[in-house]
Amino acid sequence: MNRSDSAAIVRPLMLGSGSTRAVVKDNFAIAGLPTSMGSARFARVPPAQANAVVVDRLVRAGIAITGRAAMHELAYGVTGRNDWSGTPLNPRWPQRIVGGSSSGCAAAVASGLVDIGIGTDTGGSIRLPAACCGIVGLKPGFGLIDHDGVSPANSTLDCVGPMARNVSGIVQAMAAMVDGFDADHPIDRPRVGMLACQADAPVKQAFDAAIGRLEIEPHPVSLALFDQAFDAGLTIIAAEMWSEFFWLAPEFDGIGADVANRLRRAAQIDPASLAQAREIKRAFTAEVDDLFTRYDFLVLPTIDSVPPLCTQADDPLQQLRLTRLVRPFNVSGHPAITLPTLTEEGLPVGIQIVGPMGRDGPLCAFARQVEAKIENSKEIA
């Protein structure tokens, strides 16, 4: 094992058998083991009595689960840094962050240690590390995949989803987790909207170059509440995390400083602010749904800058801007997938494709077509 591989796995295990290997994030229940959630505090909890529902589904589908992967503690951070379990290295760009919170899953897949990583995405926690590590990551539509046995237990934003080195791996994982999942019937001549958003010049250049290979003519579109949805997502996740973990206060024994500080801030969310955020969630969801009456898919970059250097990630709160382009679709609940591409300097960024609710299969089918057209995806895979 290289350094990245050993840091990517919290606890080796073997559930099931088969040629396809997978890891699950450390917040998935495994019978007989504590659900550590990347935290010294939760490494001391009683062992789970049963596997998470998706774990059993994967095993029944013939996928071998070979380990539980490291994560940003309590799934409440975007850098992947974890001083307790160890911080996974970004396999191809080790000086840059691996991304979080599904950090170990992304590192394990990108390094070739496993074929599939199963993570969670509450504010970009699958798509962000996938983009940072040059792989594919899918946040399914909210509620599509059973969340039973996954922590934190109560969330109006969180989705279980897969990472893989290509879209075929994503489809294999989805077929195991969702009965009747079908990505074999792409939409003929899809209507594609290119969502207006801000991104650094290298990201914009890479995105435009990739879109230019697709032989489609995306139409410029906008979402008036996009930036407000980002802010609303931060407010909602903070309120829900405080509701889940308030009992750890005031000492926050066994909790890392960065997560403890975020939880202290979360305690300050007042009912009026949460109500306003939920109203924005409702209005933004309706705005996105309305756009999908005219378009089949939306495209935009996954991250608005190249992944920062690890030395720039000492203040995790400063890195929340990395989720500016992904977090809004946790607020609306729509399925979104990221595909890898590179800047002219060879640094990883991503192309994000968003689809209507209930259309995860066609979204993956379209992503497979896009993947085939992007030359850089072949270099990364």
Automatic annotation (TrEMBL):
Highest taxon above the source species: Bacteria
Pfam families to which the protein is assigned, alphabetical: Amidase
InterPro entries reported in the protein's UniProt record: Amidase, Amidase_CS, Amidase_dom, AS_sf
Gene Ontology MF term list: catalytic activity
Domain annotation Amidase: ranges: 23-363
Name of the molecule in the record: Putative amidase
Protein species of origin: Caenibius tardaugens NBRC 16725
Top-level taxonomy: Bacteria, Pseudomonadati, Pseudomonadota, Alphaproteobacteria, Sphingomonadales
